[in-house]
Amino acid sequence: MVVPKIVMDTNVLISALRSRLGGSYQLLKMVGQNKFDIFISVPLILEYEAVSKRLIGQIELSSTDINNVLDYICKVAKHNRIYYLWRPFLPDAKDDMVLELAVSAACDFIITHNLKDFKNVHQFGLDALTPQQFLKRIGG
User: Fold this and answer.
1) What percent of the chain has pLDDT over 90?
2) What would the pLDDT profile of 83-117 be if each residue is shown by its tens digit?
């Protein structure tokens, strides 16, 4: 069986940190369980950190808790450097960063809640799916 390769958009991580209900949290719980390979880059993990730390005081997690989540993602994810840029391709430059990582790592899927922002990624051999759609696809 071929293990799907994914990049998780920041909005999926934030949704998982906000609530233990839903596909985003289920997907985050599955990171590191060999159901899929998740890819990160330095710019993406820095964005994960910056956006998640803004939640402190709004969610039950502390800065240490968030650091532990991010450290775990860094430990189990596959790291990829990006040597080329196509900016701008998508409406949001931060989404371009996700697309560039997915293409550079030869991923299969971008997991996001903003499907409309990633509607043209099929040109790169990628599919954009919500966490729920991806979980159905892998049987999770």
Assistant:
1) 82
2) 666 656 676 677 888 999 999 999 999 999 999 99
- Rounded to two decimals, the pTM is 0.93
Cα–Cα dist 1/74, whole Å:
25
Hey, which CATH number is domain 5-138, 3.40.1190.20, 1.10.3430.10, 3.40.50.1010, 3.30.1330.10? 3.40.50.1010
> Which residues, listed in sequence order, are joined to residue 59 by a DSSP beta bridge?
56
The two structure tokens encoding residue 79: 């790291």
CA-to-CA separations, 74 to 1, 43, 64, 67, 137, in angstroms, rounded:
25, 12, 15, 10, 25
Q: 79 phi and psi, to 5 degrees?
A: -90, 140
